[in-house]
DNA sequence: CTGTAGACTATCGTCGACG
DNA sequence: GCGTCGACGATAGTCTACA
């Protein structure tokens, strides 16, 4: 499984746990709603700055998101 | 200080600790040498996939690099 | 509330060359 | 071994609109 797909799945999971809509997350992180949609479906690869912007609104450390992604990535490869 | 500048400084630090040249790192991570140079000087923002590619050749976890960056980022902001 | 599509701008990342 | 420059193709990220 590719890094961006894993990232997208985890982003969605974390967002839903926070009970935020894509719209809310987009508004708060100053990104576009359709872009959040693309990210969650693994159609885009976020830059480091984008990861920081998202993490800040999800009450999670950027490194923690990356840690989760890398853990899953190692298992599936 | 911006995220990309902090990232660049830490990338350079880690690379030098490994005693790798930009050329070597570029070759191994399948990126361009001039791009490594741009990254280290904070002129580019790496995507998540790029961070994974670099970390893999630096014997460090991607999340660990991000953790270092975010620690410095919090201090300086 | 989310997915998709298309058109668009900005930036990532490559490449060759020079100092 | 590195910084820089210019040109370039690829993709990140925006925006409007519709289902």
TrEMBL record, chains A, B:
One of its GO terms (cellular component) is cytosol. The keyword DNA-binding applies. SMART domains: HTH_XRE. One of its GO terms (molecular function) is DNA-binding transcription factor activity. Pfam families: HTH_3. Keywords: DNA-binding. Residues 11-65 form the HTH cro/C1-type domain. PANTHER family: HTH-TYPE TRANSCRIPTIONAL REGULATOR, METHYLPHOSPHONATE SYNTHASE. This is Helix-turn-helix transcriptional regulator.
């Amino acid at each position: 499984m590719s890094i961006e797909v894993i990232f997208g799945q985890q982003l969605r999971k974390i967002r839903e746990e926070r009970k935020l809509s894509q719209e809310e997350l987009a508004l708060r992180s100053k990104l576009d709603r359709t872009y959040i949609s693309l990210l969650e479906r693994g159609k885009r690869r976020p830059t480091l700055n984008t990861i920081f912007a998202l993490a800040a609104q999800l009450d999670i450390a950027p490194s923690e998101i990356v840690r989760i992604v890398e853990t899953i990535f190692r298992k599936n490869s």
